[in-house]
Design a protein that fits this description.
- The chain is α/β, with parallel strands linked by helices.
- The protein has a single domain, classed as TIM Barrel, CATH 3.20.20.
- The chain has 12 helices and 12 strands.
- It has helices spanning 29-32, 35-44, 55-58, 65-74, 88-96, 106-110, 113-122, 151-159, 182-189, 205-214, 223-226, 232-239, and strands spanning 2-10, 13-18, 21-27, 50-54, 79-82, 101-104, 127-134, 137-140, 145-146, 165-170, 195-199, 218-221.
- An 8-stranded parallel β-barrel has the order 1-4-5-6-7-10-11-12, surrounded by 8 helices.
- Helix 5 (88-96) links the parallel strand 5 (79-82) and strand 6.
- Helix 5 (88-96) packs parallel to helix 7 (113-122) and helix 10 (205-214) runs parallel beside helix 12 (232-239).
- The chain is globular, with a radius of gyration of 16 Å.
């Protein structure tokens, strides 16, 4: 299972949120430095990939594309980028400036044809569909809007469009460090031709072991690393890449 450190950006700095709420933002600049310095740290500790979310873009209050481009240019690791990608042009720009994959939430639901267009230009692995969910329902627009679609519904729909990889985040667990939503994740990994990246709630190396056990291909680790619950090196030595 691949372990992917998260770099969430707000106003050019690394922050973590709780349950996706902007007002809960906590900066980690004093401990981890700039986003580039943090990215270099995760690379040096063994990360094979980085997960970057542009929170300003997600909340439609700006963007951090220059910071993302700087990381892509200077850190020799593939990066997956999400947050506020609401048009083909934004996705194209991010992929052109060094992102290996774009994570689509709202756009995937409002205009699924964009997925096919991006895949046609940048390859089948260039798109990850984000299935951010709460109480069994997918949420979009920076986790502000609830849809009528369940995770199962979404998987059925997007597998038919050729999407292989899904980022599944339990909003209720996000930033809580109390464990992931294993029930939802386990059901998703049972769907044929689906790769699941888990996010939300990871607080211990035991949580990572549980995710590996249910068949997740990857896990995004955020607050647990920034709060010092364990190091990336410890996680990698226990779980593997």
């Amino acid at each position: 299972m691949e372990l992917i450190p998260a770099i969430d950006l707000m106003s050019g700095k690394i922050v973590r949120l709780t349950k996706g709420k902007a007002e809960t933002a906590k900066s980690y600049e004093s401990q981890f430095g700039t986003p580039l310095q943090a990215a270099e740290r995760w690379r040096d500790e063994g990360a094979g990939k980085l997960h970057i979310i542009d929170l300003d873009a997600a909340f439609s209050i700006g963007d951090n594309r220059s910071v993302i481009a700087e990381i892509a240019k200077n850190v020799s690791r593939p990066i997956q980028v999400g947050g506020g990608i609401r048009s083909y042009k934004v996705a194209e720009d991010l992929l052109k400036t060094g992102a290996a994959q774009v994570i689509l939430g709202s756009l995937a639901f409002s205009d699924p044809t964009v997925i096919t267009k991006i895949q046609g230009r940048f390859g089948p692995d260039s798109v990850i569909v984000a299935l951010d969910n709460q109480d069994g329902r997918i949420m979009v627009d920076g986790w502000q809007t609830t849809t009528a679609m369940t995770v199962d519904d979404a998987l059925d729909k997007y597998v038919k469009l050729g999407v292989q990889t899904y980022l599944i985040t339990s909003i209720a667990q996000d930033g809580m460090l109390t464990g992931p939503d294993l029930q939802t994740l386990n059901a998703a990994t049972m769907v044929p031709n689906v790769k699941v990246i888990a996010a939300g709630g990871i607080g211990t190396i035991g949580d990572l072991s549980a995710l590996k056990e249910v068949g997740c291909e990857g896990a995004v680790i955020g607050k647990a690393l920034y709060e010092g619950r364990f190091t990336l090196k410890e996680a990698l030595s226990n779980i593997g890449v």
